[in-house]
UniProtKB/TrEMBL annotation:
<dbReference type="GO" id="GO:0005737">
    <property type="term" value="C:cytoplasm"/>
</dbReference>
<comment type="similarity">
    <text>Belongs to the RNA methyltransferase RsmE family.</text>
</comment>
<keyword id="KW-0698">rRNA processing</keyword>
<keyword id="KW-0949">S-adenosyl-L-methionine</keyword>
<dbReference type="InterPro" id="IPR029028">
    <property type="entry name" value="Alpha/beta_knot_MTases"/>
</dbReference>
<dbReference type="GO" id="GO:0070475">
    <property type="term" value="P:rRNA base methylation"/>
</dbReference>
<keyword id="KW-0808">Transferase</keyword>
<protein>
    <recommendedName>
        <fullName>Ribosomal RNA small subunit methyltransferase E</fullName>
        <ecNumber>2.1.1.193</ecNumber>
    </recommendedName>
</protein>
<dbReference type="InterPro" id="IPR015947">
    <property type="entry name" value="PUA-like_sf"/>
</dbReference>
<dbReference type="InterPro" id="IPR046886">
    <property type="entry name" value="RsmE_MTase_dom"/>
</dbReference>
<dbReference type="GO" id="GO:0070042">
    <property type="term" value="F:rRNA (uridine-N3-)-methyltransferase activity"/>
</dbReference>
<dbReference type="InterPro" id="IPR029026">
    <property type="entry name" value="tRNA_m1G_MTases_N"/>
</dbReference>
<comment type="function">
    <text>Specifically methylates the N3 position of the uracil ring of uridine 1498 (m3U1498) in 16S rRNA. Acts on the fully assembled 30S ribosomal subunit.</text>
</comment>
<dbReference type="Pfam" id="PF04452">
    <property type="entry name" value="Methyltrans_RNA"/>
</dbReference>
<feature type="domain" description="Ribosomal RNA small subunit methyltransferase E methyltransferase">
    <location>
        <begin position="82"/>
        <end position="237"/>
    </location>
</feature>
<keyword id="KW-0963">Cytoplasm</keyword>
<keyword id="KW-0489">Methyltransferase</keyword>
């Protein structure tokens, strides 16, 4: 195998997130250094791919002695198609963090936990900042692994009624909704917003609110767990927009 091709392929597997990405010397965070040294086992002078989660991607040479990298290439890499935003009630256990990871891998641009009548998991206000930081780190790690140019923002929990005030095209899973295979999203650039309910489903009042503000989509006869529904819904939206 050509040595240049091999180095190019290896650099893509060694991916580092940089907050303030620019040409020239940039700092290497403690977390990213740990990832490079302890997980990837890279050596000083290794060329890695760098990204900022906002669309900039480049190449950099490591200088582990000074905790820096020398960025020599930089380009803007923007995903085509409309934004896809996930609005989901937080499921129990570790399934919410799993959902953040997989939704990021599938290319969503924002993730909003929604509060519904049957939402079981509630985040105490005093722990919200810590939770948001952890959720954002999970999204960043998933973007790094999946080579996404953009890292979705993971937002603070929002009431369902307030989430429905946003400007996007809104859809929710509905056994009486439009056929997922037949429904067409059209060519609009407006964000696509996908609503996934809690494990107990949306209440009758919430379904009334959703029907007044969003389009129900029939995803199939199976009753899906919340995290499975999210992945199925995102995949449907991506395929419908020409993924």
């Amino acid at each position: 195998m050509d040595s240049h091709y091999l180095e190019e392929a290896l650099s893509r597997t060694r991916r580092v997130w940089v907050d303030d990405l620019k040409l020239g010397e940039v700092g290497l965070s403690t977390e990213e250094r740990h990832y490079l040294e302890q997980v990837l086992r890279v050596a000083d002078g290794t060329v890695v791919e760098v990204f900022d989660g906002q669309g900039k991607v480049g190449k950099a040479k490591l200088n582990l002695g000074s905790n820096t990298m020398q960025v020599s290439e930089l380009e803007a890499r923007v995903d085509s198609g409309p934004e896809i935003r996930l609005y989901q009630a937080i499921p129990k256990g570790d399934r919410w963090e799993w959902t953040i990871e997989k939704a990021t891998e599938l290319g969503v641009t924002a993730i909003y936990p929604i509060l519904t009548e049957r939402t079981v998991v509630q985040v105490p206000p005093g722990k919200l900042a810590v939770k948001l930081e952890r959720w954002q780190k999970i999204a960043t790690a998933a973007a790094r692994q999946s080579h996404a140019a953009l890292t979705p923002s993971v937002e603070a929990p929002i009431q369902l009624k307030d989430a429905l005030l946003s400007e996007g095209r809104k859809y929710f899973g509905d056994f009486e909704g439009e056929s997922a295979s037949d429904f067409e999203l059209g060519d609009s650039d407006a964000p696509i917003e996908l609503f996934v309910g809690p494990e107990g489903g949306f209440s009758a009042a919430e379904l009334h609110l959703l029907n007044a503000n969003a389009t129900g989509i029939y995803l199939g006869p199976q009753v899906l767990r919340a995290e499975t529904a999210a992945i199925a819904f995102i995949t449907w939206a991506q395929l419908k927009t020409g993924w």
